[in-house]
Amino acid sequence: MRFIKTVFAGFMACVAMTGVALAADASGYREFVEGNTKAKVTVIEYASLTCPHCAEFHIQTYPKLKAEYIDKNKIKFIYRDFPTDGLALGAAMLTRCAPGDRGKMMIDLLFKNQREWAASQNPKAALLGFAQLAGMDAAQVDACLANEALFKDIQDVREKAVALYKIEGTPTFFINDEAVLGGEYELLKATIDKHLK
């Protein structure tokens, strides 16, 4: 509970920068799913957009995993948010608000440019730039960051992950309910291949 209060305080600081109040709108929360939705193997990633190890996975390992397993429809891959601070929570909200299928594109951009925006003196302005690349304007960004239902949904995903899977850090993967910590390609590959047999 202490972590949730800390994250909420950090998130509220981000929202305060926008000058808008939280609104109880329909959340618009949706999972990011790639690959074969009927695959024998499901890989779930829990990640935080401010986590350097998560960024490393998405830059170095994810392209190999995508080429070998996702694009060949061997697995179903699900990305889930596990924000570790208020800034990651705000960024996660923006990816969920991005129109159409641009949310996943925004996640990729945020991980590739993590050092630029996460360490920025004005992270809201940096995030606004990425949100604009995904097709959102300043008013949509403010409305998204003020969406109380979406905030709650992302927190619920995180709380369920802690309760069900005892997740303590990111990135954490579940391959058909088998936990794999970190994002090392060879370990993920070996575990996926074992479940494909």
Spatial strand arrangement across the major sheet: 1-3-2-4-5
CATH topology: Glutaredoxin
How much helicity do the residues have?
55-70%
- Poorly predicted regions are 1-25
Quickly give the structural class: alpha+beta
What integer is the average pLDDT?
A: 88
Assign the CATH class. Answer: Alpha Beta
- Round the Cα radius of gyration to an integer and report it: 16 Å
Q: Strand percentage, roughly? A: 5-15%
How do the helices and strands follow one another from N- to C-terminus?
HEEHEHHHHHHEEH
Shape: globular
Structural domain count: 1
How many helical elements?
Answer: 9
Gap between N and C termini, in Å? 40 Å
Write the layout of secondary structure elements.
Elements: H1 2-18, E1 32-35, E2 41-47, H2 52-70, E3 75-81, H3 86-97, H4 102-112, H5 114-118, H6 123-133, H7 138-145, H8 148-165, E4 172-175, E5 178-181, H9 185-196
Parallel strand pairs: 2-3
Antiparallel strand pairs: 1-3, 2-4, 4-5
Features:
197 residues; alpha+beta; Glutaredoxin; disordered N terminus; globular
Structural summary, described in words:
The structure is a single chain. The N and C termini lie far apart (40 Å). A hairpin with a 2-residue loop joins strand 4 (172-175) and strand 5 (178-181). Helix 2 (52-70) crosses helix 4 (102-112). Mean pLDDT is 88; it is low at 1-25. The chain has one domain (2-196): Glutaredoxin, CATH 3.40.30.10. The chain is built from nine helices and five strands; from the N terminus they run H-E-E-H-E-H-H-H-H-H-H-E-E-H. With 197 residues, the chain is an alpha+beta fold. The chain has a five-stranded mixed beta sheet, sandwiched between helices.
